[in-house]
C-alpha cells in the first residue's frame, strides 16, 4: 500500500497498540501516519474508524466483529483476511443496504485458494463441463535453500496453529460420493502424495472440514471434495509420534510446568520404569529403533535435555511442545520460506473425463519479507485498492469468489511472482466399488 500511495493518492493510517511498532511499520513514509490505538477503548476506536475511507483489520479473527459494527455505523468498507464468522454473516443484510463491501478471507488460505480455484471452476463451467473432483492443498514450508533440519520444516506463521492442527473433531471429506472421516488419532498416517516440478515430492494430510465450501463453490453435486495441508514427505509420520504420546493436547495444565525441564516434560508421557532411561522408554513405546530416522528427528529437538527449562507457568502440553519446537524451527534472519498451493480439478466434458492440475510456488526473501507475509498481505492490499477505486462494487459480507474480485487480483498477483501454472492431466479416476 505504501509503495502505491503516491500514484493512488493515498494516505495510510497504521494503528497499533504500540506507537513504536506502528512507527516501525511505516518507516517515516510521508504518506502514512502511525497512531497508538487500544481497540478496546470504544471511543478511541470509533474516532479512528470514522476518519477513514476503508478499514483493513488484521486483528485476531474474534475481534473483527466490533470493527465491522463500527464500519456499519460510519459507513466504511472493511477488508479482513480471516474466515467469515457467523457473527459477521449476520451483518450481511445491513451491509448490503448501506452499499458497503465487507471483504473477508482475502489472504492466502483462505484467499488465494478461493480465487485460483474459482477461476478454473468457472472456466470449466463456461465450456459446459461438469465438475467431478476438486482437491485443494496448501502449505507454508521452508524453502529448499534454507531446509537444514531433519523435519524439513520451520515455522512460517502461527506455531500454535501447527501444534493444534487437526484437533476438534474428525477430518471429513467426500470421495466418489462417499463421506469419509479420519479421527485425529490417525490423521497423520493418512496422507496423499503430490509432485511439484522443480521442488520434488510433498505429502498432505486432510483438513478438518473439506466440505464447508461445497455450497459456496457451487459444488453440491461433486463426487470428490478434499482439502489438505502440505508438508514434506516424512513430516506427518514423525509428527504422529507427538500425537500418540499426547504432547499436542491443549485441554489440561501440567503441574509445575514453569520449572520443568525438557527431559521431564518428555518423561511425563512415558511409563515408570526402575532402570530404563527416558530414551529407552521413548523408543519402546514408539516402537522405533535407535538407527531409525524418526529417532534422529526426536534427538534433533533436544527433547531429552535435562538443563533446558520450559519456563511457562500453568502450561498445557501443546503450549510446552510449541515452546520446544520454536527453539529449533524458528526462521533465521536469512532463511527463506516457501508457499506451495496445488489444486486438482476433475470434470466431464462431451462425455470425456478430464483433469487440470494447478500449482503455485512462492519463495520468500528472508525472515521478515516472507512468502507467507507476501501471499497474505498482497491480496488484502490489492482488494482494498480495487474497492477504493470502484472496481469491486458488489456490496455485502463476502468471500473473493466472484469474477469481479478474483480476476483483477490474480492478474496483479502475477506481477509479484504469485503465478499458477495449469496443466491438462489424464483424469485420475476412482473405482467406486473400492470405496
UniProtKB/TrEMBL annotation:
Keywords: Oxidoreductase. Gene3D superfamilies: Dihydrodipicolinate Reductase, domain 2 (3.30.360.10), Domain 3, Saccharopine reductase (1.10.1870.10), NAD(P)-binding Rossmann-like Domain (3.40.50.720). Residues 107-418 form the Saccharopine dehydrogenase-like C-terminal domain. It holds the Pfam family Sacchrp_dh_NADP. The keyword Oxidoreductase applies. InterPro entries: AASS, NAD(P)-bd_dom_sf, Sacchrp_dh-like_C, Sacchrp_dh_NADP-bd. Residues 3-101 form the Saccharopine dehydrogenase NADP binding domain. This is Saccharopine dehydrogenase. It comes from Flavobacterium limi.
